[in-house]
Design a protein that fits this description.
The chain is built from ten helices and no strands. With 206 residues, the protein is mainly alpha-helical. The protein has one domain. The N terminus is likely disordered.
Length: 206
Amino acid sequence: MTDFLAQTSEAWLLASLFAGALLDALPGPCLFVFGEVFFLTAGNLAHETGSAWPVLAVLAGALMADQIGYFLGSKLSGALRRLALRTSRRRAAWRRARAGLEARAILFVAVSRLMGPVAWITPTLAGSLDISWLRFSIGSLLGVLIGVGQFVLYGWLLAAGSGLIGFDLGRFVMTHAASILIGTSALGFMSVVIWRGLASRPPSAR
């Protein structure tokens, strides 16, 4: 009975991690669900239990969310285009996104995963623009591995604490706080620059 309860509890925990990562990237629920909590928890559990299942659960949830967004975009492409072309500002944004996805779909989708709200709409845009499913999926996989993986790693490091590989992690963070902040900010800035560069390419005629 104890083993059954333990297995049931573990299954519910993995399901919760999967659901949290899924809802974090779905349009609508993403406004209320903060995936970082689930990603950090997965990393923490991976360190504490030695199991890879928590990590696989959040990665699978994030990838599934991207696939659902792509599918919805492909099915609702007409309605989405009418909505996007309703005003001049939306038309300009839609043309930039179309240009970036058509020029460098894999890189565009991967980088969008590092840009918060942009990650929520890119899969749907890709589906509505008939971007190759294979190219989209490769970009999604890369983006999820980097975007979700970094928070999983943070969770693992937090669980490891100061005993990790024999040095004081807390002291390292305090000593290099400015460098870490600058490096993180630079990564975010570079992501924005790359994304805007891809989106600024002249759109192809269609």
